[in-house]
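Design job #97: recover the sequence.
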């Protein structure tokens, strides 16, 4: 009679966030966003009417991720900037950045190549080439869906 090999199925399953963990992350992500758009501060970094955020608590890594999404028109300079940056909502560490610049020209809008990088924890930085690639990478590594 051979020895039985026991491999519990639950050992391979990712841990799921509890409701209190999800709420804690949502509360911290809101605070992180609110601190960036603090209208009372003279150092306001983001116009709240041109920005939004999404959050995700990764129970396995014990990290609350927040993605800040911005559209910044600069009518004076005839430019537009669209960006998404992924942070740890507690530590402020940046993990991913996508920036798309465009210039308004007489015949329409000239869109420049994006600046795009993702730095998953414990892995080398990934330089991406498109918004779709960036979106796929931040969903894969950080559980964030921004569009």
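Job complete. Output follows.
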């Amino acid at each position: 009679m051979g020895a039985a090999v026991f491999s519990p199925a639950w050992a391979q399953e990712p841990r799921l966030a509890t409701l209190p963990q999800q709420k804690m992350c949502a509360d911290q992500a809101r605070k992180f966003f609110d601190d960036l758009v603090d209208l009372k501060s003279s150092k306001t970094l983001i116009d709240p009417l041109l920005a939004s955020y999404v959050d995700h608590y990764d129970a396995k890594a014990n990290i609350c991720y927040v993605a800040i999404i911005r559209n910044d028109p600069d009518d004076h300079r005839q430019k537009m900037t669209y960006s998404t940056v992924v942070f740890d909502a507690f530590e402020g560490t940046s993990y991913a950045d996508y920036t798309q610049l465009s210039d308004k020209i007489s015949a329409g809008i000239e869109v420049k190549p994006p600046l795009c990088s993702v730095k998953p924890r414990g892995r080398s930085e990934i330089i991406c080439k498109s918004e779709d690639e960036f979106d796929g990478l931040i969903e894969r590594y950080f559980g964030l869906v921004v569009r």
